[in-house]
Amino acid sequence: MRHIMKPVVRWAVLIGTLLLAAAGMMAARQGSDATKSVADQKAQTTNASQYVGADTCKGCHEEAGKSIDASPHARILTSKKIRGEMAHGCESCHGPGAAHVEGGGDKSKIFTFKGVKPEEITRRCLSCHESNSEQREFMRSTHNENGVTCTSCHSVHHSTLEYQLVKKQTPLCFSCHAEQKSDFQKPFHHRVEEGLIKCGDCHNPHGTLAARQLRSTPDQDAVCFKCHSDKRGPFVFEHVPVKVEGCTACHFPHGSTNPRMLTTARTNSLCLQCHAATAAIGHTQNTRLQQCIACHSNIHGSNLSPVFFK
Ligand code: HEC
Ligand code: HEC
Ligand code: HEC
Ligand code: HEC
Ligand code: HEC
Ligand code: HEC
Ligand code: HEC
Ligand code: HEC
Ligand code: HEC
Ligand code: HEC
User: Fold this and answer.
1) Which of 239, 119, 254, 124 lies closest to 180 in space, CA to CA?
2) Which of 89, 136, 141, 305 could form a disulfide with 54 if both were Cys (CB 3.0 to 4.6 A apart)?
3) Domain ranges of the chain
4) Binding site membership of 156 for ligand 1 (Cβ less than 6 Å)
């Protein structure tokens, strides 16, 4: 199939393409650079004759057809609700295919997702998915800024996993984040590798409005309160840093060599970072007083004791 084109046909196709490209460039010059690809897409969409429809594609690409039919994207081949630029089946992602078919399967005349800038892939996927609140912030994510794109994590034809991921979530994240992997192997850690919770419980890999791609929440610690609701309060007597600086003032979120994932090995040295003056009120560092939380046990806030005894 690969070499069926006669040289003369190849030239005709090539010249045709050059003419089309020239026309495209003239059209694009009317818009700014930023709107170029959108303008191109619109121009292509209006020219319905450039689309051949999924059945034609499937005629030559049986495997690819089957994998789409068995996936959530089957909806874009079948749903009557999907209209406009999205209603082109395979060609919603691969672009119009008439020239590719006329060329007997000329790879250079169809969008193959290979050898292109990551952002170009991202824009294609987002043309449908940016209406989804989970994916909406992708363009401003750290992942996008670092050349990570949708197909770094998803494979729409070849995945049999949940959400069409290329690997299960935790190994997927660790494949690029070795440093965090070692955090989660420290003696005290959130049991992510054990499957109890996921990176995605705290982060949205598609980006958010918050720093560190942390799930956007109305208040800074809500990402932790989702599971640790007993720490939310409000308490009659709040411990100021819990509310002001947040949980990470005292805990590492991933894992730590210290019990309770605290940022210091000994609790008293944690407290004394901010309460150095306690010595002045008789809290000398004798052994009895070193275990601050032996007395100040409700350290996240209390409804009964202004010094968090209970
Ligand atoms: C949701 C977007 C999307 C849709 C819909 C889609 N494809 Fe693809 N296709 C891709 C991506 C992305 C790749 C690159 C490989 C990958 O990431 O899996 C690809 C790769 C391919 C390949 C290269 C070989 C391979 O399997 O990797 C062929 C052939 C192909 N698609 C044909 C089709 C046909 C035929 C249809 C319709 C039945 C279709 N595609 C629908 C996104 C799509
Ligand atoms: C007349 C048969 C035919 C039809 C119809 C056809 N293709 Fe192809 N397609 C081919 C051939 C042949 C190749 C080249 C395969 C190769 O070189 O491995 C190809 C290559 C591709 C590739 C690149 C595969 C790769 O390995 O990079 C994609 C993507 C693709 N086709 C998608 C489509 C889509 C989408 C449609 C429908 C719009 C379509 N094809 C219709 C024959 C066809
Ligand atoms: C760094 C890896 C990564 C990248 C990059 C990525 N995703 Fe995802 N995606 C995931 C993970 C992990 C999940 C599963 C989320 C969960 O478990 O809550 C997911 C889930 C999804 C879902 C289904 C779940 C939902 O709530 O919407 C869609 C749709 C999706 N991604 C589309 C995209 C698109 C489109 C892009 C590119 C703009 C993209 N993804 C980029 C990792 C990624
Ligand atoms: C033409 C519109 C369109 C395009 C373009 C598109 N998608 Fe989708 N995608 C959909 C629809 C529709 C669904 C099914 C949503 C549903 O059923 O709720 C979907 C579902 C998904 C899911 C969720 C799978 C699951 O198990 O829930 C992922 C992941 C995904 N798409 C990734 C991608 C990636 C990656 C690309 C680019 C290569 C892409 N999509 C391009 C329309 C599109
Ligand atoms: C293909 C490689 C790749 C994969 C897979 C990947 N990441 Fe990333 N991620 C990066 C790069 C590159 C950066 C930017 C450099 C850095 O901070 O390490 C980044 C940054 C981040 C950041 C820091 C954001 C910031 O603003 O500082 C978080 C959080 C993150 N990734 C979470 C995840 C999660 C969760 C997953 C799995 C769903 C994942 N990543 C999968 C490559 C990847
Ligand atoms: C319990 C919630 C939680 C879970 C689960 C979680 N993270 Fe984080 N992660 C955070 C918080 C909070 C920060 C911000 C830390 C800071 O800014 O001090 C962060 C920061 C990061 C960063 C930025 C660099 C760094 O280490 O500070 C990366 C990358 C990252 N996480 C990746 C991951 C990956 C990969 C997973 C899953 C294996 C994961 N995270 C699971 C809460 C979590
Ligand atoms: C998706 C649920 C979930 C989220 C979100 C979550 N945690 Fe946890 N956390 C747990 C579970 C479950 C445990 C019990 C750990 C175990 O037994 O492995 C735990 C344990 C802890 C512990 C005690 C560890 C120990 O050694 O006893 C601390 C401290 C902690 N989490 C802090 C946080 C902080 C800070 C955040 C926000 C950055 C957070 N958690 C977000 C589920 C969660
Ligand atoms: C001022 C420092 C500090 C801040 C801020 C803080 N913690 Fe703690 N946390 C501690 C100390 C100290 C312990 C150990 C208590 C013990 O061993 O009895 C602890 C223990 C825990 C534990 C395990 C024991 C238990 O009480 O369930 C969890 C879970 C926890 N913290 C979650 C959080 C969350 C969620 C936040 C943010 C809302 C937070 N912490 C903010 C100091 C702090
Ligand atoms: C990140 C800084 C920080 C850390 C760490 C910290 N605290 Fe506090 N704590 C404060 C601030 C700020 C107040 C409010 C003090 C004020 O209003 O004068 C406070 C208030 C208190 C109070 C209430 C009495 C008062 O002065 O209002 C007690 C008791 C207390 N802390 C004990 C502890 C103990 C025990 C630890 C260690 C487990 C600890 N704190 C860790 C910052 C911190
Ligand atoms: C044996 C019990 C005990 C231990 C252990 C202890 N405290 Fe206290 N703490 C007290 C008592 C009693 C008060 C005074 C309560 C009052 O005024 O009602 C107090 C008061 C405080 C206050 C509030 C002071 C003020 O200005 O009102 C802070 C802050 C404090 N302790 C911090 C610490 C720190 C930090 C440690 C560990 C180094 C610690 N405590 C260990 C019993 C203890």
Assistant:
1) 254
2) 89
3) 7-112, 116-216, 219-310
4) yes
DSSP assignment string, the chain? -TT-S-HHHHHHHHHHHHHHHHHHHHHHHTS-STTHHHHHHHHHHH-GGG---HHHHHHH-HHHHHHHHTSTTHHHHH-SS--GGG-STHHHHH---HHHHHTTS-GGGS--SSSS-HHHHHHHHHHHHTTSTTTTTGGGSHHHHTT--HHHHB-TTT--SGGGBSS-HHHHHHHH-HHHHHHTTSSEE--TTTTSS-HHHHB-TT--SSGGGBPP-SSTTHHHHTT-GGG----SB--HHHHHT-GGGTB-SSEESSGGGBSSSSHHHHHHHH-GGGGGGT----HHHH-HHHHS--TT-BSS-TT---
203 lines ligand 5 (CB under 6 A): yes
Closest ligand to C-alpha of residue 172 is 5
- Check pLDDT > 70 for residue 39: no
Nearest CA to ligand 3 atom 19: 163
Question: Average of pLDDT values for 277-300?
Answer: 75
In this prediction, residue 31 carries a pLDDT of 35
Which residue is closest in CA terms to ligand 6's atom 41? 199
Query: CA–CA separation, 226 vs 210, rounded Å?
Result: 16
296 lines ligand 3 (CB under 6 A): no
Q: Which residue type sits at 213? A: Q
Establish whether residue 240 lines the binding site of ligand 8, counting it when its CB lies within 6 angstroms of any ligand atom.
Answer: no
The model's pLDDT over 150-194, given as tens digits with 9 standing for 90+, comes to 999 999 999 999 999 999 999 999 999 999 999 999 999 999 999
